[in-house]
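Predict structure. Chain length: 192.
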Amino acid sequence: MTEIPAVRSVRTEHTRAGVAAALMAIGTLALLARTSVLGTAHQTSILVEIYLGLALVSLLVPMGSRERPRLPTIWVVAIGGLAFAAVTFLTSPQIPLPRGAEVLVLNTAAAISEEAFFRRLVYGVLQRYAVGVAVVGSATLFALIHVPLYGTSAFAVDLGAGLVLSWQRWASGDWIASGTTHVIANLLAVMR
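Prediction complete.
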């Protein structure tokens, strides 16, 4: 007996949604696990593995075609980069960050993998409900995931950063602009 195409389409969509939800849970757990490895002997290698795994998990689910950009990507990156640069230079860092090539590599890997996760996978899954849900939901999860690393006092800052990055996702039509800006923001924080 052959399956009706509409039923097959609904079944495929439910399967894809279930896989996306499972991958979101795995990614969230991976990000939470990184706090437990900080200060360990193999910290760098474990963090690299977490970030590579997170990026792979985030890129596994097909999210459909690229959306129509509302603004040119270069403008979106420039706006976000300038916003993060202004905040970085107008405020004092709350958490002293170590310097060195290792930290630059880890911060870059963290930025790229987090953007693939939050602005590709999470945003993409939530977008089916509404763009506002995708922007606020991915930004809120981004801020919550950073609480174990930086404490509750950094929640508002991380939420603001997440909202800017999620706006960039919406404005540019994909997660590359927010990924570029996140790398810039992380490098500014380390180099300051």
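Summary: Residues 5-191 form one domain.
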